[in-house]
Design goal:
295 residues; mainly alpha; DNA polymerase, domain 1; hpI Integrase, Chain A; two-stranded antiparallel ribbon; two-stranded antiparallel sheet; 55% helix
Amino acid sequence: MNEADRALVDRFLEMMAAEAGASPNTLAAYRSDLSAAAVDLGGSLGDASAERLSTLGEQWSALAASTVARRSAALRRFYRFLVDDSLRADDPSAALPQPSLQRPLPRVLEPTEVEALFADAEQRASSGEPLALRNLAIVELLYGSGLRASELITLPRGALRRGQPFLILLGKGQKERLVPISTRAEAAVARWLEHVPANSRWLFPGGKSHISRVRLFQLVRELAGKAGIAPDRISPHVLRHAFATHLLAGGADLRVLQALLGHADIATTQIYTHVDAARLVQLVNERHPLADRGR
């Protein structure tokens, strides 16, 4: 990337941070995608023509559709910024490839599998062994509150306060959201806290900091294996999916679910409706004004 393009990308990322509240990870992803596109465009990014952009589809033919879609989205936002800030007169992004993406359906655990997972974790925690208490607190928060892995591992030691049935998280995109805490999760965390050093900054310390995402992933799989669940069917994110799908099946409103999960777009939350197709069909059959005519 030449110096002129690097300066434009820096200005773009400053805007994303200040106006869109983009997280450091998001900014790094934008920089990576724009740098890769600059290479594919022969080192000229800011003044690339629509004709030049139209050749990217062929250059990116070996990439995954999701990667092409992400890079195209980054370029579209970049060129829109250049036009909005009068750094460029035209927006050539209409020539970018637009792959058709089908959002993958989330893996879901059956309620019976969740029950088996908790039954085993609770039985092990009944011994009072500190790591068993920690593991129970982890699954209670992942499934009971729908926390993201990154949100859970960075919870401060004092995140949960006795008698307060919720906590305020700074989640994805540096956006705050209110997360409900069940009495079960509160009790599990309280028991674990007795074994967390008072000077620890984190609720789940590990090494010189908090436990890592990789270690969390390993812990959840180990717990699944002990409960008789195939480890390759579970992860911290699968437990978050289970939280969402089981709430929806229980009658939760989609907008409430969106707020609980911290989704910026309701379209992201709507993917969970696939698991409740049978309930929706039953609802139509029972509540539609013409339902009786077919009987």
